[in-house]
Amino acid sequence: MSPHLTAPPRGPDGVPRRKPTPSPRRPGGGAARPGSGGLRPLTSLLLVGGVVLAAWWALVAITAPPPFMLPGPDRVARVFVTRWAELASNAAVTGGEMAIGLALGVALGMATALLTGLLPWTVRLIQPLVVVVQALPVFAVAPVLVLWLGFGLASKVVMAALVIFFPVASALSDAIARADPGLLDLARLHHATTAQTFRHIRLPGAVPGLISGLRMAATLAPIGAIIGEWVGASSGLGLMMMHANARMQTDVMFAALTLVAAMALLLRLAVDLLTRRWAPWAPESGGSLL
Amino acid sequence: MKRLLASAALLLALASSPVRAADGLTVLLDWFVNPDHAPLVVARDKGMFAAEGLAVELIAPADPSAPPRLVAAGQADVAVSYEPQLLLAVKEGLPILRFATLVETPLNTVMALDGGPVRTLADLKGRKVGYSVAGFEDAVLGSMLESVGLKLTDITLINVNFALTAALVSGEVDAVVGGFRNFEATELDLAGRKARTFYPEENGVPAYDELIYVAARAKIADPRLPRFVRAVETATAWMINHPDEAWEIVRKSDAKLDDELNRRAFFDTLPRFAKRPGALDVGRAERLAAFLAARGLIETAPPVADYAVATR
User: Buried b vs exposed e over B270-294: b needs ≥16 C-beta within 10 Å?
Assistant: First the structure.
């Protein structure tokens, strides 16, 4: 999960490659890659899903827990059939909140990181704020946000953006600050301005950091939206889960959770696809679902 | 051998002595401790439980729907729950039974601000109504609306997650369903606003027991339960006979209860506590089940014996 831990790809002289040079795309056209054991991504996803499903089914078949404790996959599947319209319309609401929240959170996180990168003296002012935003328990802030912003879309989007903001801002600003010292020396030798150094060295070098922040953000997006719905909403998967909880319908709860998981996976896949197109040279060992 | 006999005799003497260790009993409340739980607090602090040989521990949950499940899962002995909630839980296969009543009237209401646009239930048409998810507020509101010729689709329901008064006062919603008549109405009053209250049992909903005690079906013959019910009954009778002294006990039991809101809530709730907590009104239980079935919350009304027993 941590692309941080792997060194950026470097040329023979130890200098990171600067531009998205098209040549070293994966040999073999991306069908089989080291680490995936030759399995296509969809196949491996289905395989993992199948194993989890089988284990769950076996557990329920062997221990036969009452359905309110742990419903079997068959009961959850039946909920998908009988209440599909309700699930789909609520998932659309939550999905929309997640997408807008993700866009807003990423934009704010990137803006913050760029600001601290361009004007290093602002770090001392902004860093404490960023930390505070992350440390605030969203659950405690949520009811107040709902009072301020109402029970509609705005409060959920802000909640999701709050959760997403930190990983993006911190990953990107760390990456900008951790630019290759050799390259920085080179820039200084050539009397490059701060702006030039930023444009040509810090920013391109920070792309892998941004990508890991985005991957984290994609998996966090549902949390903000669902918490927002938990404290006040008229639709959405979070609201549906609350109702299921109050009516002891654990199978409905599981169906909604499955949809949340599916949406998180889709978001994550979207980020992976995007980064592959945008920065194919960035390291993705362990981090990519593709 | 002599020593063995002596210790056996000592053990016998200890076992038959009147001072025996009290049996522990954990009771999960439905919500934070509040004046609705006064009979339990009084029975604990005034010694009614001790007189029955019980050491009762009261535990407040974070989620009012959790206690019945925890009792079904064997994590506690008794849970305070709601009668409509019980039927929903039994429908989902929870092996629990109601064995006594705490509050024998509905507490639920539909509430609007006095002086606001909602003067009658019919004024709710086209308006936003806030609720906290308890499981059946749409059924209550649905039939209250039908009593004035409206439908649920004529209003917008918004979950405000237990911030009922805040949502109402801030104007986010025009009315709320689920506010308790003995609490939220006073809360509004203390905030300088008057509540206009509509009572479900006066507007098409059958009367029911708002708060009940449930236990796991497998443990319904537990000999501690009749002792628990006797202690609660004694405490309730004493509270009604000595209301001011009872309030003193409740007030002193928890610093959070010692304020004007809880004082007024205590006296407003006093006439609503079950005077015969172990009794079961089968006809009344059947009417509520039939109501929930008619509203589509349960498929069919189960026999009362499937979810409630009287305690002797």
Answer: bebbbeebbebbeebbeebbebbbe
